TrEMBL record:
Residue ranges the record marks as coiled coil: none
InterPro entries recorded: C-type_lectin-like, C-type_lectin-like/link_sf, CTDL_fold
Record lineage: Eukaryota, Metazoa, Ecdysozoa, Arthropoda, Hexapoda
Database matches in CDD domains: CLECT (cd00037)
C-type lectin domain segment(s): 144-279
Protein name: Uncharacterized protein LOC101895417 isoform X2
Listed Pfam families: Lectin_C (PF00059)
Amino acid sequence: MFIWQIIAVCVSILTTIYSLICRDSKADLRYHFYLLAESHRSLGEKLHIENVDSLETCKQLTRLYKGLAFNYGPKDRLRNKAGNTSRDHYWEQAQLYFNCHVLKCPERESSKTLINDSSFNYYSLYDQLIAVPHHICVSQVGIFTLSTNPETFVNASMQCQKPNNDTKQCGSLAHIASEKRTTSLARILTEYNEKQEEIKLKSKINLAYVGLHFNRSRGNHFEMFNMDDDSLRCFGYRAWEPGNPKMSSNLRNTSCVALSSHGTWLTVDCKRKLPYFCEVLTRCHDKKDGWKGANQ
């Protein structure tokens, strides 16, 4: 009985420690939506449509479905009322029947799919229209870029943080510690390589830096951190390539993580030059306040 009491105390202590070092697992529910365009509606792909009584309810639905943006208008602005017909019947003309449209992706700058519509306002998880060149939207996750110009880990991190001079949008090396993030970014590498084959170019990307690294100066035990200084222990997902993570003599001071095109993580020397994934932050004013998409 005494042994079980000791175990219970140890579990309680560990739980307390992790509650201090790990951000609240529900923190992504606190992310903020920005009103970017009054009397406008996005024609972007929808995840969900519904009639709701308030703006706050539409926000909650968008969080629930991990949308990155939404259209909302008061019910009294609707042109028609939905009957008992299946929702699929109304999907293509949702603006006539439903006042909350949860969207897969946010609108980009100078987009032709953000149209005038006095019945709706357009809201986004990002504080401005996306203006980052060659960005890739991963539905229900976030906005990413793949830089094919090889850099060391430190230089890649600096390039991601650098604000876009015109829009002040910025980011960080991509958060990777979930199955959806890992598989989605690996798919981007695979599709890039397939396009290279189609145009008969030999340059392919087998590895790309992501936002996960280890530095022995932070402690004596092995522990990986993302670019927000969250420990990998705070996340349940792992995708290590067999034989990884490696801590050989040439990596005894620092070790950085690269994603392979087949969806596994490898530790590499941080001075090695590789392509890299950046993730656009929802806002750039303060890194601590800049959420990474839907945090999936």
